[in-house]
Automatic annotation (TrEMBL):
Any one Gene Ontology molecular-function term assigned to this protein's record: peptidase activity
Organism of origin: Curtobacterium pusillum
Signal peptide: none
GO biological process, one term: proteolysis
InterPro entries per record: Cyt/Met_Dipeptidase, Peptidase_M20, Peptidase_M20_dimer
Record has Hydrolase as a keyword: yes
Residue ranges constituting the Peptidase M20 dimerisation domain according to the UniProt record: 228-375
The name this protein goes by in its record: Acetylornithine deacetylase/succinyl-diaminopimelate desuccinylase-like protein
Gene3D superfamilies: 3.30.70.360, Zn peptidases
Keyword vocabulary terms for this entry: Hydrolase, Metal-binding, Protease
Keyword set includes Cell division: no
Lineage: Bacteria, Bacillati, Actinomycetota, Actinomycetes, Micrococcales
Pfam families linked to this entry: M20_dimer, Peptidase_M20
Amino acid sequence: MTDTEQHSTATDPALLDALREHVQGALPSTIADLSALVRLPSVSWSAFDPANVRASAEAVADLARSTGVFADDAVRIVRSAVEGDTATADADGRELGQPAVLAVRPARNGKPTVMLYAHHDVQPQGDDALWETPPFEPTLRGDRLYGRGASDDKAGVMTHIASLRAVHAQFGDDLDLGIVLFVEGEEEFGSRSFRTFLREQKEHLAADVIVVADSDNWSAEVPSITVSLRGNVTFKLTLTTLEHASHSGMFGGAAPDAMIPMVRLLASLHDDDGSVAVEGLTSYEADVPARTEDELATDAALLPGVRPVGRGDVLSRMWFQPSITVTGMDVPSVANASNTLLPTVSARISVRVAPGQPATEAAAAVERHLRAHVPFGARLEISEPDAGDGFLVDTAGWAVQEARTAMREGWGNEAVEQGIGGSIPFVSDLAAEFPEAQILVTGVEDPDTRAHSPNESQHLGVLHRAIASEAILLARLATR
């Protein structure tokens, strides 16, 4: 029997029952702890109050201590310098990123070490009017808990906390498995200090297995192991045509206002069917499960009569092909519109990059396209760039097999290997810093979560099953 086959056998029934019983019994307190985290508006973006992120980090540190797994002095709140930034914020003249929580329990007796990653910061709530309940007041409706961060990613944080509590209840101080709990504080703001943090804390972060609880599941009943992630490129695009605004009646039809070239330039990024039309952006070739365009229309909430964009298999478009989205524009509002030609217009561009293509290469291709297609000689500026590489998971390792077994026992269904159209750029950073570690990308979301959107919610059945699966995985590794 091979090593993989040996350790893919079923978990000891008595241990399995004990873990399940603990997770079930602790679920009300787990939901209460999650609700308390949701009440903290820990938006990490620079325009928001950093005191809320600090309060969130302190709450997570208290939760880490509550597991019983870590000594009190082994739980720390850490801030690292933003890479490449010279803004003065500390005694060394460094701008510091948002606070992360780091807790370490060293391995003993030859057992492996597992890093558990999640993030405690959240997206801004957006327009409060679009929320059916207050975004930072957790609200239970049916089997879902609503609130900003209820799923992404404070439910990921609580998955780690609750699974550690369950494991500690079974093993106590006899737990020889090494545990590193790393809860980041600025994932939603680009993980600006992430690389510095990895370098500074490398000795404490080193692990054999890394579990990233920040992804999706196939459904509320079927778990997933994420095996591919698209990269991302974002930037601000500004076009300027006039030194100042002018009367549209006097000069319109002859003088180009900035909106004309902006509209035409943005339209050049896509073919007539909505496929990306930028030379140099590549696609990744791999088989995907079948999904119809009708299913896509339902899942993505297309209005009646609206057609999907792109070509090829639906999931290939979402997982393995590039996409370009205009996520914001700086223009006068309709309410404040006047009869003037706009001298300057800006847009925020988000590019999802197919796994396998370096983000810097994709960024260069998009910039070449924009400069080659800008109309009317408009002055073009690209600023505020950010980029992160995609990732392809090696599914041949023993950790994936252990995770499959744990998910089957925790969910009652086999896990689906899936790609994700979104980006988690720091995963490639983890792989670069710890090349020998096996990375498992899991999560607590489901197709109805609406992460980043109004009315974000966490399915409590998914949370329950995710905690059970992770507790089983940790127990299996502890006895491996």
